[in-house]
UniProtKB/TrEMBL annotation, chains A, B:
<dbReference type="InterPro" id="IPR027417">
    <property type="entry name" value="P-loop_NTPase"/>
</dbReference>
<protein>
    <recommendedName>
        <fullName>Corrinoid adenosyltransferase</fullName>
        <ecNumber>2.5.1.17</ecNumber>
    </recommendedName>
</protein>
<dbReference type="Pfam" id="PF02572">
    <property type="entry name" value="CobA_CobO_BtuR"/>
</dbReference>
<keyword id="KW-0169">Cobalamin biosynthesis</keyword>
<keyword id="KW-0067">ATP-binding</keyword>
<keyword id="KW-0627">Porphyrin biosynthesis</keyword>
<keyword id="KW-0547">Nucleotide-binding</keyword>
<comment type="function">
    <text>Required for both de novo synthesis of the corrin ring for the assimilation of exogenous corrinoids. Participates in the adenosylation of a variety of incomplete and complete corrinoids.</text>
</comment>
<feature type="compositionally biased region" description="Basic and acidic residues">
    <location>
        <begin position="1"/>
        <end position="10"/>
    </location>
</feature>
<dbReference type="InterPro" id="IPR003724">
    <property type="entry name" value="CblAdoTrfase_CobA"/>
</dbReference>
<comment type="similarity">
    <text>Belongs to the Cob(I)alamin adenosyltransferase family.</text>
</comment>
<feature type="region of interest" description="Disordered">
    <location>
        <begin position="1"/>
        <end position="21"/>
    </location>
</feature>
<keyword id="KW-0963">Cytoplasm</keyword>
<comment type="pathway">
    <text>Cofactor biosynthesis; adenosylcobalamin biosynthesis; adenosylcobalamin from cob(II)yrinate a,c-diamide: step 2/7.</text>
</comment>
<keyword id="KW-0808">Transferase</keyword>
Length: 202, 202
């Protein structure tokens, strides 16, 4: 790029801006999105939390249900607790399935968490609902996929719903508006023996 | 899974827990990570914002420098403004390079933003520093890559540094501890003409 003159740069950018403006002018619709974050990489839950943060900043009302995390002290819990009018935060998990070692209990927990998600989605005062790690309980077949898809299909038109977790079902991906796969390129806990750290993993 | 008895399930999960505990026991180190979020998908900045949110929740001090976003009213700005003792937030961009149409100005903006990042990284009172969209200005060669890598290599051992933006340089990926590529599976703005929406894109 160094050999381009300032005039050439300005002309090229002007052209780029015009193209960008044309594209943006064609994007006029607003709609509540069904968003899926999946894949083996990190960032599925954190990107969803970042969306919750932005929504709070715009004064919106958000419901967050965590299917795996329970009573532990997370950073998200501490911050969301400062915005009680904007976030209803429900960490409803019992930990991982290998912690409980009890399938009936896991199914009951998944059901209770799902009923919360369902209630929030049905209530049009919520602008955004995050079902964190829902894909995990679907993978274990702790909830009927058809029932979940039916609720998502019937969500209010303006509500954003975010579903996270690895192994998102194909039918959910088909239904979603925005799907991102987080791909693991490098992870320090494996390669360097680094443990879960505050501010990063929780 | 339905045909497995409860006892078999419990036994399998017990085994899984033991394996998990062994792995976790080997992960004892804590260290400030160099984290990179790249790729064409969404979630690079939002996942970084989610980490900032978690760090704030743990009472840590975070510096955030945005290389592209400027004065616009973003959700992150509104929330971070509520935590002045924990987040120093500096949206220092002029917009995209096709908005300014002036390379000298873009280079000056990139330099000013980078000096802020550099100052924050050098100051050990910051637990986390986010250089949002730094990869973009590196791609345009608005900052010398060698200089950036040198500063990152010399960061305090406990400080987490997060760099976002598509097209992360290979040398940065080599140096990083944790690298995630956000892969676009489906995007509504292209396919459905949906515009950027509050709470999602800003």
């Amino acid at each position: 790029m160094a050999e381009r003159t300032e005039e050439q740069h300005a002309a090229k950018m002007k052209k780029k801006q015009a193209a960008h403006d044309r594209i943006m002018a064609a994007r006029t619709a607003e709609k509540g999105l069904l968003i899926v974050h999946t894949g083996k990489g990190k960032g599925k839950t954190t990107a969803a939390l970042g969306m919750v943060l932005r929504a709070i900043g715009h004064g919106k009302k958000v419901g967050v249900v965590q299917f795996v995390k329970g009573a532990m002290d997370t950073g998200e819990k501490a911050v969301f607790g400062r915005f009680p009018e904007h976030v209803e935060f429900r960490p409803m998990g019992d930990g991982f399935t290998w912690d409980t070692q009890n399938r009936a209990q896991d199914i009951a927990s998944a059901r209770a968490a799902w009923e919360e998600v369902r209630r929030m989605i049905a209530d049009p005062t919520y602008d955004m609902v995050l079902a964190d790690e829902l894909n995990i309980v679907l993978r274990y077949e702790y909830l009927p996929l058809d029932e979940v898809l039916e609720v998502l299909r019937a969500k209010p038109a303006d509500t954003h719903v975010i579903v996270t977790g690895r192994n998102a079902p194909a039918a959910l991906i088909d239904m979603a508006d925005l799907v991102t796969e987080m791909t693991l390129v490098k992870h320090p806990s494996r390669e360097q023996g680094i443990k879960a750290q505050a501010g990063i993993e929780f």
